[in-house]
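User: structure tokens for this one?
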Amino acid sequence: MSPHVDRELVQAATEVARTRCRGDNHTMAAAARTRDGRIVTAVNAYHFTGGPCAELVLIGTAAAQGAYELDTIVAVGDRERGVVPPCGRCRQVLLDYFPALQVIVGDGDRLRTVPVTDLLPETYVWADHQLPPGAPA
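Assistant:
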């Protein structure tokens, strides 16, 4: 666990949740700090078929901006719900894309930054189980 919490990142996600999340379609915002220090934000695209969470939209948004390495991520709920930890699917995707990623979790004065691996004990890393290119199946 890291004692440092990127408050600027939390504020960025909070501001997006406050100003961009409207109604049932967009209920969560995420913000991530890229390796080069930029902040990327996104909102979820809720749909009853399982639309993507804000963290997953953020991965695509970051890539569209040329940011392929993320250092820290946080998600914040609309209606002033504060920091919300990633769901199980997001935890797995975040681990697979960014195994060294830090995630801000907790609430109020108890925010903390933890490695994504701490959110998935006994992790399964998808890439570890893939055949190398050209290997016989």
